[in-house]
Amino acid sequence: MSLFGAEFLRNINQHLSVEGHDPPDVQFTPCGYLFLASEKGAQQLEENAKLQKKLGAKNELLTPVKLKQKFPWINTDGIALGCHGLENEGWFDPWSLLYAFKRKALSLGVEYIDGEAIGFEFKKMPDLLMDGMEPGSYEGVDKVLVRTESGEIRSVKFGIVIIAAGPYSAKVARMARIGTGDGMLSIPLPVEPRKRYVFCINCKNGPGLNTPLTIDPSGTYFRREGLAGNYICGRSPLPEEEPSVDNLDVDHDFFDKNIWPVLASRVPAFEAVKVKNAWGGYYEYNTYDENGIVGPHPYYINMYIATGFSGHGIQHAPAVGRGVMEMILDGGFETIDLTRMSFDRLIMDRPLIEENIV
Q: Residue ranges of the FAD dependent oxidoreductase domain (predicted)?
């Protein structure tokens, strides 16, 4: 999925250009990722690197000595191994990509409606038979109720519906009785909002322009943000530290207690950083296995799901969009087989676990 996304961004002008407009510019910065592992995590990091290479990624494993040679700014105390991505890795402006997708869709005739989904209308389909259900009892969905910006409630009829509501996907799913019904409808969509902070810091003598996005074994990460010595950084809280999702207020103590000490230890130049800005946002967090859920719902014959990527959604968006399109038009995955990410794994209790991710 990540390789597909990288190829998509490389050819973004071909995919998302619109006549009469400037080509899309998502400001891709191909500096790679640098994952660091302690002695405890070194074997897992090495296994991940081998799997990535097998699947076509290009990376290099670096011992502490080689890390210091390649990145003199790093303190390798407590580090047993590093993995540096050499190609198709980096970061880009997500809002620019989102705008490019929307502009292209508009040019192809897509209509956008500003509103809030508040429910579904159900339709009895007595001729449809399903295992585990009494004949004639099946109810499908073909209309969604939407509250518009003016407060008016409209019923929108659809042939196919895709639940891709990010952190609020489970809320939309419950409107369709997913997680509250019987049989296959008894299994909820395990996605919820989780608040995460991003801090923008300034350090005049910090790592240079070619610095990769660096991930410490603690999960603390940082990368450059443009020029003038600016960086962004963050980390996920421990389970017992999860902040309230009632608002997007930033807890600056979280930086002082949990992020800055790690940064200053790993990059001595960061002892003299200054926080310039900070913001909060929501992950669409999959509480089951922290991986995306993609494909048809096993009960509804016209409902697909694309959510739960737990922080990797924008990176995988091109591949997920392609996969869902193929499911709808071709009846199955053609370009990338995403079967393992289906809702069925929740039914069969087969979590898709990844280690050493950020």
A: 24-325
